[in-house]
Amino acid sequence: MRLAKYLAHAGVASRRSAEALIAAGRVSVDGRPVTDPARDVDERSRVLFDGRPLAGPEPRVLYAVHKPVGVLSSARDERGRRTVMELVPAGGVRLYPVGRLDRDSSGLMLLTNDGQLANRLTHPRFEVPKTYRVRLGGRPIAQAALQALREGVELDDGPTAPARVRRVGEHAIELTIREGRNRQVRRMCAAVGHPVLELQRTRFGPLRLGDLPAGAHRRLREGEAERLRAL
Prior knowledge:
elongated
């Protein structure tokens, strides 16, 4: 494992920040200062940060969280507004939010200290499906609007990929996409003439929101975590 990644997994800092700490000479390996963040280390290496030995990478943890409306999905907010990080007791572990939702939306998010998994779940190349339950304004949704969503709609940042969509009421749909653009579901629905009144993510890859109450969290079982990693 690269030294910068080792520090990140040990909870010292993000990988980019860890590279700067290493370059500053604050890390030693087996009694010698190291300034190369690409230096290979393993469980037998004695790694010290500012003279303090590191116990090694933290155990990987994954939490499912039901983000309520009004809570931000970012790690922190300069204006002091409530964030999703406050919903899970981190216990000293550095967690990252995965699968962001805008402030006016609710539903399933993940928090983890596994940066590699977080990247795989959100990078467009891996096309992880995400499903939403959407309540729409305007007239009852017509078949033509559903078909347009299924074929892909034109947005200001380019056409969307085809979505899987089904009507679940006169003013409600269930929509599954494999992209992750900013406020994409809201913009797609607006493009077919329907403003979004309520938006909830009900599924992220193989995980379902289920009956997890708003504001609650649960730690994923190992089998669930393995299915996510298998994506």
